[in-house]
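Notes from the 1:1 (GR / supervisor)

We went over the backlog. Supervisor wanted to see one worked example end to end before approving the batch request, so GR pasted a single chain during the call. The sequence is below; no edits were made to it. Supervisor asked that the structure be written out right there so they could see what the output format looks like.
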Amino acid sequence: MNPTVSNQKQPQEAGGAATSRSREKEVQAASGWLMLPVVIVLLVGAIALAIYAIVHGVKVQGHPLVVSLVVALLAIPFDIVLMRGFFALQPNEARVLVLFGEYHGTVRTSGFYWANPFYSRDSSLAFDHQAGKLVRTTTHRYKVSLRARNFSSDKLKVNDKRGNPIEIAAVIVWRVQDTAQATFDVDDYENYVRVQSESAIRHLASQYAYDHGEEDETTLRSGVDEVCAALRRELQERLAKAGVEVEEARLTHLAYAPEIAQAMLRRQQAEAVIAARQKIVHGAVSMVDMALRELAEKQVVELDDERKAAMVSNLMVVLCGESEVHPVVNTGSLYT
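Structure output shown during the call:
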């Protein structure tokens, strides 16, 4: 296995600060099943050599065989060090290999492996001030999960494009695409995803109106698919530097803030009433026009302009009124 360093220098960004962006290099580690018998044989041999050096030396020379005993005592800790090189990977899991601060590659294939025991490990020792002793902590920094993950944001209060306070939340499906970037280019990629996701949701909400947009204007309520696509694009742009791929982004909660919810509800009800009235009036006018035209074409009755106006008024009252209409029968002539 000849892994190579894959950190590449990038051009200077705005402000003159040089940045270094890591690139993943996939490597293959030695099979753990091949190294396991070697380690076992070495350990058993070292123990057997130590016993032989003591027993045979005392029996023959009256003291242990010093050279053999020293070799055996050195072989045992060496074998223990070799044991630290074993590691296992589950499906959709990767191990980042770092030797003395230098990136040597990433193992992506699941299985049982052995690698240089001095590669940096996930667990480390830390001093627990409460317990007053060293404890082993697990950081999961160099073993990276490649599985799809969900991040569900909290309900965020933000102003929309028109300055109205709204509450918005989203769920993001993401996975680690480049283990080198996720490990070395950001301090904690999981926390990075959380912070950047909330920032992107806030920025997205400020770019769209909640509803009541202008003609052909996309709003948060009416253009859900377009808004979600815009959110996914922005998230991908923000999280690319952490080696994260955004697979899906969807809004899960969208509402006016409680302080204006009642006022906006009354506004929506008023607009709904106005829209319904417009449809009723439009339909009533069409029905009146049809009635007058049918009467004229079939010559049922001839009406002058005054009687047509009266008939239109009566029909509009009947068709547009909310309460039940009680007809009054005229028993006189048409003009009395």
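Supervisor's comment: The two ends are 111 Å apart (CA to CA).
Batch request approved.
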